[in-house]
Amino acid sequence: MKNDIPIYDIQNLKTYKQDGILVSKFGYYAKQHEHLHAAHRHSFFHLVFFTEGSGNQQIDFKEFDVKPGLIYFMIPGQVHSWNFKTEPEGYIINFSANYLSSFLLKPDYLENFNFFNGQPHSQVIDLPTEVQQTIISIFEDMLKEGSSEKHANDDLVKTLLIRLFIEVARTDDALQKANSNSYNHTLLKNFRNLIEKNYAQLRLPKQYAELLYITPNHLNALCNDFLGISAGALIRDRVILEAKRLLINLDLRVSEIADKLNFDDQSYFIKFFKKYEGITPEKFRKLTTTQNGN
Questions:
Q1: Nearest 5 degrees, angle CA 236-CA 39-CA 228?
Q2: What is the pLDDT of residues 71-99, one digit of tens each?
Q3: DSSP class of 93
Q4: Which numeric CATH code is attached to 181-291?
Q5: C-alpha 267: how far from its chain's center?
């Protein structure tokens, strides 16, 4: 029995003719990789479109339904699990973090898409019926390229992958709103990037505002306008998320987790976690690891 949540690299999985990408029908994939139904993390990007099935899934401890017409996207490092009530079908794509880097001049291209922002509620999208057939056609074209007796054209596969992102993005009002003001969109993206790098050291909005060369009031207004939460809540949520990810590792004591997250002591970390989650870290650990069969 493993005490740590497994982290899977794309090299652990059968790839799609070319290094760095896997494209498959989801039903087949789910049966071939049943160990992925329990909580796990990826070192690669991951997306699934469901055409059949029911149940639920968790992305970074947020629960979502599984149903036809739903597509979800995940970035490296997120925690994920499935719990199917009826047999699922659809399509899955896994691709490495550098798969598109040699094809695109913009290394941060994926950050233009709201569903790659690492926020679970932005990553799960119910596609309109009229869009679903377009998405299915793109998946089928990618599968056809992979099953061809000729050598797969990797540039064509990359082009189809980007087209899929664009077609989904057109249905995503949140992306359109974020892009309506490119300056504010860039500020918000930079703020999130700074949080990702500094959440364990910097906890105050004014510290990030200083790095962004704006006022704390401007930063807070930006977060409220585009995300509906304060700048402080965005920082706090990232700290709590990392605490949850660390708590799944049963080899780490709560005191060690508090230290990793730069809390002054274990008791302060416990109070902080309970204030915003309603339960103690140990209670969260027990509930989560029991659900995942540890």
A1: 30
A2: 999 999 898 889 999 999 999 999 998 89
A3: E
A4: 1.10.10.60
A5: 30
**Which candidate, 137, 139, 127, places its Cα nearest to that of 71?**
127
Beta-carbon neighbour count of residue 209 at 10 Å?
Answer: 19
Q: Where are the beta strands (DSSP E) in the chain?
A: 7-8, 21-25, 40-42, 45-59, 62-66, 70-74, 79-95, 124-126
Give the span between the Cα atoms of 221 and 231, in whole angstroms. 8
How does pLDDT run across 1-21, given as a tens digit for each residue?
A: 344 566 777 766 654 445 788
Q: Fold for domain 7-177?
A: Jelly Rolls (2.60.120)
Say if residues 239 and 200 touch (Cβ distance below 8 Å). yes
CA 122/CA 59 separation, integer angstroms: 11
- Conformational region of residue 228, where left means phi above 0, alpha means psi within -120 to 50, and beta covers everything else: left
pTM equals 0.79
CB crowding 193-202: b at 16 or more within 10 Å, else e: ebbeeebeeb
